[in-house]
Input
Amino acid sequence: MALLTKQPVGCTAAPLRNKPQRLPSVAVRCAAATEQSVLRVSRNESFGKLQAGYLFPEIARRRRVHQEKNPDAQIISLGIGDTTEPLPQYIADAMAKAAAGLATREGYSGYGAEQGKAPLRDALASTFYPGMVAADEVFVSDGSKCDIARLQVMFGANKTIAAQDPSYPVYVDTTVMMGNTGTHNGTGFDGIEYMVCTPENNFFPDLSKTKRTDVIFFCSPNNPTGAAATRDQLKQLVKFARDNGSLLVYDAAYAIYISNPDCPKTIYEIEGADEVAIETCSFSKYAGFTGVRLGWTVVPKKLRYADGSSVHADWNRVMTTCFNGASNIVQAGGLACLQPEGLKEMHGLVSFYKENAAILKKTFQEMGFEVYGGEDAPYVWVGFPGKPSWDVFAEILEKCNIVTTPGSGFGPAGEGFVRASAFGSRDNIMEAVRRFKEVYGKQ
Output
């Protein structure tokens, strides 16, 4: 079958190296880059190293181009991991009550604590980290993505970074922005230690071949592969961090999707992690808060820099300096999520998306594809050996009117894969299945 590619509109193609590209299959040089300016302020040169555009806006742009060319197409998005189902009523009611209360003398509140409201911090600690984390080690925020960027501010320049490959692009891109990498070499950035996680190593890096870095970003269950690390694997990871004196940033954004009892839902289930690990998490995929915005980061007080100074104290300074606290209304919703009725509704949402993932995984398996994930995470990782990810993305969009996410956008090791998201209505999932079978079912 013919594989299709598209070029960004309004830009001219620059010559490519004969290597897989991390983002679009063309490097772009836009006319706006040469426009004259009255400013005498030099650009942060690190931004010039970033590749073309952040992954998901580029996907959205390509979707728009396809829709303009095919105005009658009914496009289904299995691309960006954005929740689709309405908020649970109990949780929405709690936010509505908090919003209405702001119109009363008794219910009005202005600035809150930058670290988050005490009842919410208490509930987060007792619900997700019983006996492992104290409430004052939990910092409430507007989401994990924002906290990852703020963590980079705290780490500062001249830090070495390791990240899973493939993984959520924010880890690498914020490292580039901070000036902690070299240039893009055609597949990845010089100066980043890419911890390759592929089917060949059961999606866990060979730590014996991993160089020591100051900071390690690790996500489990992994976005995009859907692989959840086992207890033994996380013991290896924590030991590696301790032996090397590295700080581990553990992204648990999808922990609530874990059903395998051998896969911990927090890094703090592993002995010694509280001396080397920060954990970040979010209500985005737990309760459908992608547009509501509420997350948290755990920074144990045992974490100490090489000079003995407190990481917890520095993070508190970052939050009080760079953040004014999460919305009071949204925090009321977060607290409702952690009440018995809220937890029931939240787990109901998660179960719905897990069922979607199971449907997608079974479909690809029945069609003979190499497919991973879809059990402990809301993503299915589908292999198209020998085919560039962006070409597969284009083909699926053209032939099925379905948006996926090209695996190479998550790192060099993602080349040859696409990610299909389980976030969608059941009708859309079933229609996507029908289209996939129509195009790929008879190969």
User: Anything to note?
Assistant: The chain has two domains: 20-31+44-84+345-440, 89-338.
